[in-house]
Design the sequence.
């Protein structure tokens, strides 16, 4: 009952506060004032319901917390499903079959979109190493993506370099950039680290935009080759399908690598370092090296994803590597569930597919993502899928 | 085995250790006692390289280690159980233990040592898959000691293992400290506020006051010393 009263109060306040902008409309040309009383009613009703919903959800969440503290909490549904082998393996098989057969039944447009999803899965998993596991907030992640994309685009443009040759090279180059950025900023924490990495990302983009002789500036690089397949001639459809499979293979490789990392000693060291640096030092963990490794590994994947992106779109220019791209990848990681592989895959799918299939949605996507993030932080701070590490046991 | 010669350590411009000289012989248990803020923790942090000294020498088995990064010092066979336990709350017991063996590559030896610490602390063995943060204070202290043992140190630095524990658990832990010293010939450097207990297990002791070592003697002599009795043993009985 008290809740309803509170919501009513909020509604009245909002009606009062938005009165000047929502209700009164002055027309200076005809010197008339239009009173739009209906707007006030809409706001009143809308705020009342939203506020009530909010309170209801909060109450439910708090109940959940209490249950957890008293040890009575049930595992969340998602987790229970993920734990149950009877569901887990068929689910993996189903998703696998779906992913493998897409080019057979989807048209070129949709295959392309799914390729995009996979690129974001790679990016999300890469950033997940840095943010989700090592706990280093990197807002300039897109810089490494740009490094990969431009290294392939330029090498291909000038020397006709082969995709398969550049891919591993770009991986190493990305790692080198990761170390180069990581070294000076590792002593920073939290917000400071975020600001410096943000700056780094913007610097890379500005250099690409303005250094015309090197990167061809804002006009970008066109006619980048798609990956070749033993020199077999392919038409555009086949090329698109082949591209899809290349990215799928790389995404699977990423998933395997990240899963193994997560359950390895170094993965645990990242988590430990996040929890207690002094204890880590006392145990002989080299702080600098361990953090640099996270940066370098994350950058490696971003850079390889960049090569794939350049090859897939055959054209790149600096606006593809703006700050918003970094934010988008971060949203994927945070929304999906920090540190969780399944979560990142889910997050990438949502973030890429929603704006594609609901065109109207794409105009407001930043607002909606922002709103979604705030709600997530309040109601599900661990993300859609709560990260689970394999419990570790030492075997003979 | 370990020798500190005129070590000076600072926090910014706070002079925390003033010309501290301490000697630890192979195979013994020595203790460093002193009031709050005397600089005991700082001494251990300086040895471990986590708070490097500004001047002076620290020799471990004859080799100077001052200025070396902490992970190299650990790899030489010197490991610390930090004050307040500092276990990793979101790692399980066995994962915490594996963090202790972080620098070790010899999987089969690690496995042996794991069995050894589980034998030492059966309580931990029952709680292998429990998260560190959910252990009781006493269990956390056992875990902290075990985690350090997993590094296979020849010299074990213990910072106030009795902190915040019930007398019966403290007694148990001190028995185990003695056992570790006897069974695996691990040299132990014990920092304590509970001077009475510390001097009972240790063979020798150092007394520290406001950053300086003010006294050193065998435990028996210190226990009998009037000053020590008044200051650290609660009114000279
Ligand atoms: N991180 C720090 N920054 C600044 N000063 C510090 C820091 N750590 C310790 N000090 C100061 O150094 C002095 C020695 O502290 P230390 O922690 O070594 O004392 P302690 O003997 O271990 O005390 P306790 O028995 O309470 O643990 C104290 O005056 C303390 O305020
Ligand atoms: Mg102390």
Sequence:
């Amino acid at each position: 009952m008290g809740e309803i009263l509170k919501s009513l109060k909020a509604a009245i306040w909002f009606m009062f506060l938005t009165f000047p902008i929502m209700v009164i409309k002055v027309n200076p040309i005809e010197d008339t004032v239009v009173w739009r009383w209906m707007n006030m009613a809409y706001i009143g009703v809308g705020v009342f319901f939203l506020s009530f919903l909010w309170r209801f959800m909060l109450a439910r969440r708090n109940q959940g917390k209490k249950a957890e503290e008293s040890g009575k909490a049930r595992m969340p549904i998602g987790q229970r499903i993920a734990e149950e082998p009877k569901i887990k393996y068929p689910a993996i098989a189903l998703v696998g079959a779906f992913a493998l057969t897409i080019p057979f039944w989807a048209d070129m447009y949709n295959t392309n979109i799914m390729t995009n999803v996979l690129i974001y899965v790679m990016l999300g998993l890469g950033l997940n190493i840095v943010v989700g596991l090592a706990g280093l907030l990197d807002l300039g992640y897109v810089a490494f993506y740009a490094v990969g994309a431009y290294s392939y685009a330029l090498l291909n443009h000038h020397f006709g370099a082969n995709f398969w040759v550049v891919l591993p090279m770009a991986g190493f180059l990305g790692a080198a950039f990761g170390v180069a950025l990581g070294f000076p900023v590792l002593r920073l924490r939290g917000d400071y680290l975020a600001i410096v990495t943000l700056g780094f990302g913007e610097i890379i983009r500005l250099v690409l935009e303005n250094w015309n002789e090197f990167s061809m500036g804002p006009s970008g690089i066109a006619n980048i080759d798609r990956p070749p397949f033993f020199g077999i001639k392919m038409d555009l459809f086949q090329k698109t399908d082949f591209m899809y499979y290349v990215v799928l293979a790389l995404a699977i490789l990423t998933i395997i690598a990240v899963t193994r990392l997560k359950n390895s000693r170094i993965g645990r060291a990242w988590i430990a370092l996040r929890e207690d640096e002094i204890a880590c030092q006392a145990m002989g963990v080299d702080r600098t090296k361990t953090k640099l490794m996270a940066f370098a590994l994350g950058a490696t994947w971003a850079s390889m994803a960049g090569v794939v992106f350049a090859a897939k779109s055959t054209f790149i220019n600096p606006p593809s590597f703006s700050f918003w791209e970094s934010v988008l990848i971060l949203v994927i990681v945070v929304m999906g569930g920090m540190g969780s592989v399944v979560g990142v895959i889910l997050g990438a799918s949502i973030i890429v597919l929603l704006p594609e299939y609901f065109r109207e949605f794409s105009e407001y996507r930043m607002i909606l993502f922002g709103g979604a993030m705030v709600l997530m932080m309040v109601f599900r701070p661990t993300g859609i899928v709560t990260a689970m590490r394999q419990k570790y046991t030492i075997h003979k | 085995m370990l020798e500190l010669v005129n070590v000076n350590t600072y926090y910014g411009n706070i002079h925390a250790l003033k010309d501290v000289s301490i000697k630890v012989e192979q195979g013994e248990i020595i203790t460093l006692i002193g009031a709050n803020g005397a600089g005991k923790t700082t001494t251990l942090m300086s040895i471990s390289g986590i708070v490097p000294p500004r001047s002076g020498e620290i020799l471990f088995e004859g080799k100077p280690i001052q200025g070396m990064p902490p992970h190299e010092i650990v790899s030489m066979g010197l490991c610390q159980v930090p004050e307040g336990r500092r276990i990793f709350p979101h790692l399980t017991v066995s994962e915490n233990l594996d963090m202790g063996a972080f620098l070790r590559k010899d999987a089969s030896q690690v496995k042996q040592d794991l069995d050894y610490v589980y034998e030492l602390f059966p309580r931990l063995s029952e709680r292998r898959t429990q998260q560190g943060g959910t252990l009781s204070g006493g269990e956390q202290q056992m875990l902290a000691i075990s985690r350090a043992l997993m590094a296979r140190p020849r010299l074990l630095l213990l910072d106030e293992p009795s902190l915040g524990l019930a007398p019966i658990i403290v007694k148990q832990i001190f028995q185990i400290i003695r056992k570790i010293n006897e069974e695996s010939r691990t040299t132990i450097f014990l920092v304590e506020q509970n001077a009475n207990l510390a001097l009972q297990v240790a063979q020798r002791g150092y007394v520290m006051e406001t950053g300086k070592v003010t006294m050193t003697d065998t435990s028996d002599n210190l226990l009998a010393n009037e000053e020590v009795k008044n200051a650290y043993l609660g009114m000279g009985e």
User: Anything to note?
Assistant: Chain B has ten helices and ten strands. The interface with chain A takes residues 48-50, 69-71, 73-75, 79-82, 86-92, 94-95, 98-100, 102-103, 107-108, 110-111, 114, 128-129, 147-148, 151 of chain B (CB under 8 Å). The pocket of adenosine-5'-triphosphate (ligand 1) is lined by residues B 11, 14, 16, 34, 36-42, 83, 193 (CB under 6 Å). The two ends of chain B are 35 Å apart (CA to CA).
